[in-house]
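Thread: quick sanity check before group meeting

JM: Hey all, I'm pulling together slides for Thursday and realized we never actually wrote out the predicted structure for the chain we discussed last week. Dropping the sequence here so it's in one place. If anyone has concerns about the input, flag it before I start.
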Amino acid sequence: MMQYFEWELPSGILWKQAAEKAGELAGDGITAVWLPPAYKGSGGADDVGYAVYDLYDLGEFGQKGSVATKYGTKEEYLRAVDALHAAGLQVYADIVLDHKMGADGLEEVLACEFARENRYEQIDGEETISAWTKFDFPGRNGVYSNFRWNSGHFAAIDRDEKTGRSAIFQFRGKKWQDEVDKEFGNFEYLMGASIDLSNEEVVRELTEWGKWYLHEVPLDGFRIDAVKHMRFTFYSHWLAELRKEAERELFAVGEYWNGDVAKLSNYIDITGGTLSLFDVPLHFRFRDAANAGGAFDMRTIFDRTLVRENPLLAVPFVDNHDTQPGQSLESWVQDWFKPLAYALILLRGDGYPCVFYGDYYGIPTHSIMPKRQWLRPMIKARELLSYGKQHDYFDDPHLVGWTREGDEAQPGSGLAVVMSNEVGGSKTMYVGERLAGRAFYDVLGNRSGIVMAGADGNAVFSAGDGSVSVWAPVLR
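JM (edit): ok, ran it. Output follows.
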């Protein structure tokens, strides 16, 4: 799949661009796109989409200073989805149900302050604060839903408007959910007005909204934001209801931002494998490997990662909108290591890899150049060549590789990958009897010449210094 946006895109272009580029994406070997949040954020036409205001406004109503969202109008959104489907791609919607921002009115609420570093530590006794918790959506005026949000639908907020004080305020009668990440003791509160999932009225509304969304937009699945901050079993039930409503399988991948694979595995266990997770631990392995250079042992690159522990539910990625330069979770993988990282997620048998828009097309605001010139042949190699039995050669701290034998159902398939994070070199690797006697070339063009596989199915493949080569069989 491709994450089809980056944080600093200009406003008003993305839905039109997605419609125009749908055929090109399919031709490049992309099979699904994850589109950014499509509903109105508190920043209107400049909101990336994570400061959620109105879930029912997909760029249709005059709210927060504009009709369109950052990415365009509802009409343009639907046109983009249709174009992507017509090109044969699946479409995944980004949903953010953890919090709301940009309320229409204030309410007086009894609340207690809790420590940011230990959410179980109460700082002061109960006090009356003024909180932005009234969401009436006057610009929509009841179209699609008459539900109005108030302080009873939220558990906490981070500002008392009366005093201008910023702190974590938990509302009277509320308790932190047990089924959340344990960072800071309890990491239920993330930002804005935190939605209270112990309120059954809220759960019903979010479920009804999900069903409405599926009827409005022919989606194939979801990317789900901030799952570690929400009651873990909420999405087990929510997705079950939506899959029943849709009468089809809906793919779902959650963002559980933690580098500890045990935390991700625990979430998968509690949710019964209801949704996949992004392989955040692998992203940090890539970042560390890039920063360490030749000091990193490439034999360990998959240690303590989700793609190793649970490959069927792992969505490996290299970078995303949160890790790009200037963002709150910035942990950008250096450019020299990017081709190695993408080969590791795209050309192996495990995981459902995600390619980042900011890598593919670049990030002009940070002078990051497009990488499509080498990403495209790598993705095409996945589409056309990366089949059959896999043989791993992770037997050297700096020079590692693997082969795929290919299969009869995919004519011309099979490949060999070699990479080095230090001085380049060669490895003898087995490509199988099917490819014995065949010639291979580097589809990335990093190595010149032809490599011949022997009658025994072995060949000597090479990679340059700090580089990767993807060796494909020459078509007969």
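AS: nice. The CA atoms of residues 412 and 475 lie 6 Å apart. Residues 200-216 form the longest helix (17 residues).
JM: adding both to the slides.
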